[in-house]
Structures are given as C-alpha cells and as structure tokens.
Amino acid sequence: MKQTWRWFGKNDPISLENIRQAGSDGIVSALHGYPPGTVWSKEDILEHKQLIEDAGLTWDVCESIWMSDEIKLKGAAAVKEVAAWKETLQNLGEAGVKTVCYNFMPVVDWTRTDLKHPIEGKGIALRFDMIDFVAYDVYVLKRPNAENDYEPATLELAKKALAEKSAEEIALLEKNIIAGLPGGAEAAGTGEFAQRIAQFDNLSNEDMRNNLVSFLEEVIPTAEANGISLAIHPDDPPFPLFGLPRIVSTESDLDFMFGAVKSPANGLTFCVGSFGARADNDLVKMASKYIDRIHFTHLRNVRRNPDGSFHEAEHLDGDLDMIAIVQSLISAELASKADDSKKDHEIYMRPDHGHLLAFEENSKVNPGYSYLGRLKGMAELRGVIQTIERFGS
C-alpha cells in the first residue's frame, strides 16, 4: 500500500515541499484548469508531472478526469465528450500516470450541508445534516414532488429547522450544497441547479447503470491499451439526493458493474468514508471481496446519526473500524500478490480529508483538505499500516 496525498496544483496553498515533509510517497492530482469535455494536452500533463517529480515525488493517481452530465445522460454531446475523455486517458497513460479516479454522480459531487461543523476539542469537520438537506430540497429549491421522498416526521423537522434559520444561514446552506467543491461542478444558482436536476427526471437507476456500462465499454479498451486502471469513486453520500439516480452506493451496485464489464481495468476507488455513511455496507468484507478491483483507497471515518446525517470523524475514531478495514485491505493485497500475474498490484491510499485544526483556522484551505488535519490522519494511518505489515494480519 503506497501512501499518497492530494495536491490541487500550483494554486494549492499546500506546497509539494509541505507534502513531502508529511511523509507522502506520491501525489494524487489533476489538471484543474480544463473543463469537462476537453482534451488535456500532452504538454500540460508532462509539465504538471515534471513539477511533481522535481519535488522528489511521483504522480501516481489522476483524480479526476472530469465529465459533464452529458455522458451520464448519454446526451447529444456525449459521443464527442467521451472521445475527449479517451484522448486525455491516452495522454495520461503515455505520460506514465496509470491510475485514474472518476465518478458517475449526476449533477452533484460530494455533498455536505456544513463545511465548518465544530467537534468539541477536535477541530472543525465537514457534515451532512439530513434535516437541513431536506429543508433545502423541499422548501428552498422546491423541487417538484420532493416531499414524496421523505417521511412526514422528517418534513416537519425540516420545516421547523428552516424557520429557525436567518436569510444568511439559508444562503450559506445553499452555497454549501451547490457550490463547486474540489472535483465538483461549477457553482450554480438555484434556478440553474433545478434545471440540471430536471434533466434526469425520466432516468431510472437502471437507465443510469446502462449508461455507465456503455461508457465503460467505450473507454476500457483505451485504458487497457495504455496500461491504465480506472477507479470509480462511490456516491458520496451513498443514497439518493434530489431524486437523482445513484448507482455506486452498495455491494450490489459493485457486483453489477464488475459483472457487466469484467476487465480488471474496470476498478474501484474504495472510499471508506463514502461507503461507510451507510450502516448496511460491510467495509471489511467489501475490502477483501473486491481487492482485485481496488486500485485506490480513500481512508476516512464517519460518525453517523440514525436519521442519515453524519460528520467526518477523526481517521481512527468513528463508527467504522478503520484498523480492521486496513487490515483487510493489506491481507487481501498480499494474498493477491501471491499470484505472479498480480505481483505488482499495489493499492494507492490517501488520508481522505482532515479536520481543520486551530492553527489553520484562519488559513485558506479547500474544504476538507487542511494540511494539519490530513498530516495527523496520515501519521495515524501510517502507524496502523506499518504495524500490520510488520506483525502480520
């Protein structure tokens, strides 16, 4: 298991030198200046890679090649955009970047309602509050028939919560939900956001699954030809939002996807925090079951509430047994390597998100991507990994 760190490029307030001092062996990055549907030039890819290598690091994972909703909808522009995606994939492969993370979430990327949720004595975390989310969906966005997606008691709580918020608090809630976050779409106003959602009104989960399979059947040959492993990121959170289809949320979703496209290049980003927001996902089992498809892992913990709310916990302190999950990953990885054809299989990991601690509270950081919070998480996880690797599973 190789330890990596996400870097957002030249504009990232955290430098490559900072990252190297954190003990990272490699970098997870992307060319963030390119909009979806455009080809990343070979020159820009190589320049980005050289910056990383000049700092004594390696660019191990591309996270992500963005795609617009046109591909997920199989819309009029999908053929052109898939062709651009494939060309970018080839350019990355020729440059030596062999693992590519992507997601197939419609409209919204990873979604939180609160980007500054205080945890007593432990800093500031990201939080998804189900009641606040319902309040926004039903009473602010006013999505048609949204109330049919929720229980009456939940609607009452949401109405009460919204009534207690000031105009400024409602505006902040909307910004947190629909503003572009790292790897997400551009920020949109309420009207535009509602229009994006409406595009999917007639698309079922089955339709969405079929569109994903069509996409994979188109791009996997390019990945294979260039020695690239694709690693789909699960839905975050792993349950329906805004009535949109969600197709990478559960073990059964993965069984369908891997069964439909059997190539080992059709792989997974095993995001522990995303899958773990559902109590019915058995992370230890999934880590072992899908080891041959897990090319990349995000190690993050969560603390869940019964109503579906959750906040991002410290890496070793949440509802998920992180030590058992890492142990399962390492044990399965070592067992897989016993097969000569898989002896070079290595999972890239990164500490996914971290609390905003007091020292950085007034610093400019991407939400969830503080330096000290991730440094703390990386150190804790490194201790777990080295202990398991030394003393066995």
Task: Give a short synopsis of this structure.
It is built from 14 helices and twelve strands. Helices cover 42% and strands 16% of the residues.
Radius of gyration using CA atoms only: 20 Å
Quick check: average pLDDT? 92
Strand order within the widest beta sheet: 1-2-3-4-7-8-9-12
CATH superfamily of the largest domain: Divalent-metal-dependent TIM barrel enzymes
InterPro entries: Man_deHydtase, Xyl_isomerase-like_sf
Pathway: Carbohydrate metabolism; pentose and glucuronate interconversion
Enzyme class: lyase
Function: Catalyzes the dehydration of D-mannonate.
How would you describe this protein?
Helix 12 packs parallel to helix 13 (about 320-335) and helix 13 (about 320-335) packs across helix 14. The chain folds into two domains: about 1-110 and about 200-390, Alpha-Beta Barrel (TIM Barrel); about 130-195, no CATH class. It is globular. The protein contains 14 helices and twelve strands. It is α/β, with parallel strands linked by helices. An eight-stranded parallel β-barrel has the order 1-2-3-4-7-8-9-12. Strands 5-6-11-10 form a four-stranded antiparallel β-sheet.
